[in-house]
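dude i think i finally got it to work??
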Amino acid sequence: MFNRSILHSLTKWSEKPHRKPLILRGARQVGKTTAVSILAESFEQYIYLNLELEEDRHLFEQGYTAQELFEAICFLKDKDPQKSQTLLFIDEIQSSPEAVAVLRYFYETLNHLHVIAAGSLLESLLDRHISFPVGRVEYLRMHPLSFEEFLVATEETQAVEMLHRIPLPAFAHDKLLKLFHRYTLIGGMPEVVQRYAESKNLAPLKSIYESLITAYLDDVEKYASKDSKAAVIRHVIQSAFHEAGNRIKMAGFGQSKYSSKDISEAMLVLEKALLLRRIYPVTSTQLPLTPNLKKSPKLQLLDTGLVNFFSGIQTEVFGSNDLNSLYGGRIIEHLVGQELLASHDSMLFSPYFWVREKRQSNAEVDFILAHRNNAIPIEVKSGATGRLRSLHSFIDHAEHHWAVRLYAGPLNVETVKTLAGKEYQLLNLPYFLAGQLEDYLDWFVQGK
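look at this
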């Protein structure tokens, strides 16, 4: 099971004439090795190194030149150093600072070689003062499978086709909504999706969820520099599943006695491992989107399926007809965040939300996206348009007249008035189209 958008990006990278070594970022078990292995099928020769293995790591500790190192790798792995189309994959590269340093020399002296490096804890090297080869490597981020990739994996071919029809035909709505609810329940972790695709049975998935979460907890000692830090990190992992989608405070997070500093440091480590991220609000209705780091962030975890399982709410998800009604809309909002992240493979992309906090007029819009020089507000909410008070508040302060509501209902565009009387265009979009939001914004803003 693999991420199709990442494979497309990997292929584009491999075909570039001025290609740099690629650092593939992603949490454990999101399919990095599988994606590279599939890419390798188009190469004459594929070499795989895992630097958690002493034999492989030892090669980088001998002080070889890049040419000598490559020849030593080929000798160890019984490969031909003369073959022109060779893909070298260095996995768990964070285990060897020397391997990170040598990437620049691969670029400078062996630029015919295709080099990909991966490591779920790569940024931990920054704390050890390791010099990254700035300007001589490229980065690509991997996520769990998106809804579209879930459909591909489960062989819902016609559903995938409908997902790309703009505007969505009305007849496709109910089936896509049902499939999206199933995706919400299962999530996008590749092993989980693969097992479901094979059996179409939810029962065998329990052991996979448990093994994934256990593996992340077991990794804590690798994340932590001290035993005391390990305890905080373990607490944050266990508590984060219950707080996913919520605005959080650092001090006392998860009903603990840990200080704001302790929790912030632990979350930073887990952000480096790409297991979670803190999404901060913006307070302006105009570009650029500048997060206010002094305000409380929302918590986004790696995968909504893991959140559902660990929080014990899979039964509620299974029986829901409208995800906005489940846990105050927290699960669907979290999954929309996951879909937005999956639709951007850049390390620099981050979703934001909007707040206006005053004594008697607080307002909060779930997501803000930069589109065509405008900050477009996006609410994940059911119910009548008159209840979209925060959206109205944003539009009253914005210089444009476009907004989006993600909900369980049908696709349509309507003209709405704010409480202050400003007219704007509201795109009501089924939430299963969150991954196609950029394309729909093009369609919407252009007035088609």
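DSSP finds 18 helices and 14 strands in the chain.
im so relieved honestly
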